[in-house]
Amino acid sequence: MNLGLGIDTGGTYTDAVLMDLSSGAVIEKSKALTTYPDLILGISNAINGLNPENLRHIKFTSVSTTLATNTTLEGKGYPTGLILIGYSVAGDLPVDDLIEIRGGHDTDGNALDDPAVDFELVEEFVKSTQSKVASYAISSFFSVRNPEHELMVKEFIQKMTDLPVVCGHELSRALGVYERTLTAVLNAQLIPVTHQFVKSISTVMQDKGITSGMMIMKCDGSLVSIDEALKRPVESVFSGPAASLVGAAHLTGKSTCVTIDVGGTSTDISMIQNGIPSVSDSGAMVGGWKTMVRAIQMTTSALGGDSHVWFYQDIHIGPRRVVPLSLAAVQYPGLVAKLKCVDRPSERILDAVVQGTSFFIASGPSTLDIALSAYEQKVYDAICSEKEPMSVYEISGKIGDHPLMFGKALDALILKRYVTHIGFTPTDALHVLGVYSKWDNEAAMVGAKILGDYTNRKPEDVCERIREMVSEKMATDLAAFFLPSLSAEDIRALVLGSAFTKMKINMPVVLIGAPVMAYSDKLCELLDIELVLPKYFDVGNAVGALVGDVIFRSDVLIRPKSVGSNIYTSFNESGKTEYESYQEAILEGKKWIENRIYAHMETYGLSEESVRIEIRQDEIKAGYAIEKPLEVRLFGVGVGTPRRIETLADDSSEAAKKESSVTV
């Protein structure tokens, strides 16, 4: 047998599938709860659900994850120190520790100043922050023209600390210093998340005797080696949704469709046309941050099965993920009794953390040694003193302070992953409604009653409203995906404003994710759509991780050294080179791109004959009378397949489609 193992680690579940690589048919699947903070147990449990006899036949392993996406959406990235070279930041950035030093380059790659004169500032900055941060990011003015200053500072920092250091030019060759800086920061924040994920997968594979190579899906729907993924984890920020899209097309046999992927933390909408994922050229937008990451065109919202449902003046859902009450009650049987007699905070002090349905349990030491403030340590010690989840007022009794005083410290402990938050979720609402009953129904019902008391509604009415809110959000997000120029208010008016009109989507809508059936009927009420649920809709991401290609992109910028000059300067990620003629610059630029692509593909064992390369040449001219352009950009794309999957014959493929999916 020639089997492939696909693994997807999401916010709630870790999925595993075995696929026959010769036919593309799914052999078996398995699901297990994702385990925090140690992912190994969840991954191992998922693989344990597969036939152990099949594991020795695995020739190819590929993985995807929503952990990076969820981390960014929830604002839970690990703390990062930022060094700006030659400019001051002109926008918000998700960092608390940053410095600005001299240096940077002009548009021709010429140095504006010497950053070495400020290395004492860098040294002092690193010494004062290395116990507080998990990584460093460096961004220099016009580093896309010349990266030498970023590399100088990186080398200096690496002599002082073993913490990861990320440079802006390593992630994007596009202009836009703010966006490039943001991308570097997010990448640095995600390095510990990706390292933990890869280490966990590798450990389990070794324990199970799985010796195949391993790849991970990037957010543009392509596959990349683990070494590359560890250097650029931000490129896997939409790994799960990209795998879902590719998996949906494979499972349904529909080369053109739009996919709604409902996970534990987020709902993601994306599209594939003629077998090619639609990619956004402007960069991925995640958690409200505009990055330079090339990703599938997607609408994503922090709304999933485990999104926190909380009350302040009205019901709110998300953006944080919490452990559902119904699941926590299985793990901690005493939780139901606590829920029944919990002291409920007054409405005036409620927020997204302090709730009558909120409980907290120590997650164990953080995977990184991130320092706590004295007060955070006090709150953490109080939570650690009990083996069962604690309510807000139980913590208050332990430390002798009102919840208003320790709410921020509690939130910080959650962000630093020292404490796990338990609360009411849409999953709990589905338990109350009888739509889903995998865990403890009583805990879900008591939680719904607490929310009902705040809202003056019956528990069932609260839960039905929560299901409606999730369905409405899915419908409006789908409409917004196709109508991006309309405002959120206009979209809501279009989708929810009239019972006598419906927006029609002229392509199949494929649902992926464990809870999607609970929302399918309401979705069809709101929109005129052909809704398709594949046979393996609950493990679509793991399937998609197996059926991607290796795609490598490279580019070169060519400009005259000065106006009217016959000497041309070529800029690429290695630096700049001057050529004696325009033709030589173009020829060498194309050769450089081809060599970069072939070298990259060779690391995957792919020969030149098995790689498809396309090079596009974009020119900017001042007018028709100008013979040579003012600027040329060469874009190269190489595509190779790391595993051979033969398509089913047309007749059997059609039969498989009819058996493996249901149209709603």
TrEMBL record:
GO terms for cellular component: cytosol. Residues 5-160 form the Hydantoinase/oxoprolinase N-terminal domain. Residues 180-479 form the Hydantoinase A/oxoprolinase domain. One of its GO terms (molecular function) is 5-oxoprolinase (ATP-hydrolyzing) activity. One of its GO terms (biological process) is glutathione metabolic process. This is Hydantoinase/oxoprolinase family protein. It comes from Methanolapillus africanus.
